[in-house]
């Protein structure tokens, strides 16, 4: 959906530092009480450092209008970002996960 793509682009402006994320209108009211900002910053920075340079952000893989994921390809590892939008208008990010994805070696 258009809103998923918009939120993906906004996330990429925030990641990995989460600078001013709490002041943005990208996240639902419950997001930061459920996801401590210090934990988000620490884990995101570790993953991006582990991924290396020359990151390539891949297409959004939508599960439905409010939920989807995308891959950030790095030199050493890939990162999967998954998020769910709230069902309100405008839809904001209410759930978020970020995790390491091993690189698939070509045979």
Give an overview in words.
This protein is of the alpha+beta class and 107 residues long. The chain is 30% helix and 28% strand. The protein has three helices and five strands. It has helices at 2-14, 31-34, 37-51; strands at 56-57, 61-64, 67-73, 78-85, 93-101. Strands 1, 2, 3, 4 and 5 form a five-stranded antiparallel beta sheet that branches.
Show unreliable segments: none
The tally of strands reads 5
Measured distance between first and last alpha carbons: 34 Å
What is the C-alpha radius of gyration, as a whole number of Å? 14 Å
Broad shape: globular
Question: In short, what is this structure?
Answer:
By secondary structure, the chain is an alpha+beta fold. The protein has helices spanning 2-14, 31-34, 37-51; strands spanning 56-57, 61-64, 67-73, 78-85, 93-101. Strands 1, 2, 3, 4 and 5 form a five-stranded antiparallel sheet that branches.
Chart the SSEs and their pairings:
Layout lengths: L1 H13 L16 H4 L2 H15 L4 E2 L3 E4 L2 E7 L4 E8 L7 E9 L6
Antiparallel strand pairs: 1-3, 2-3, 3-4, 4-5
Main traits of this protein?
5 strands, about 30% strand, 3 helices, alpha+beta, about 30% helix
């Amino acid at each position: 959906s258009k809103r998923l793509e918009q939120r993906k682009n906004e996330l990429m402006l925030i990641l990995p530092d989460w600078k001013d994320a709490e002041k943005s209108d990208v996240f639902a009211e419950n997001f930061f009480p459920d996801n401590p900002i210090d934990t988000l910053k620490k884990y995101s920075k570790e993953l991006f450092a582990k991924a290396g340079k020359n990151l390539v952000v891949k297409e959004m893989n939508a599960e439905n209008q409010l939920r989807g994921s995308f891959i950030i390809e790095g030199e050493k590892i890939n990162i999967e970002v998954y998020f769910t939008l709230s069902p309100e208008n405008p839809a904001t990010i209410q759930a978020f996960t970020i995790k390491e994805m091993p690189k698939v070696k070509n045979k």
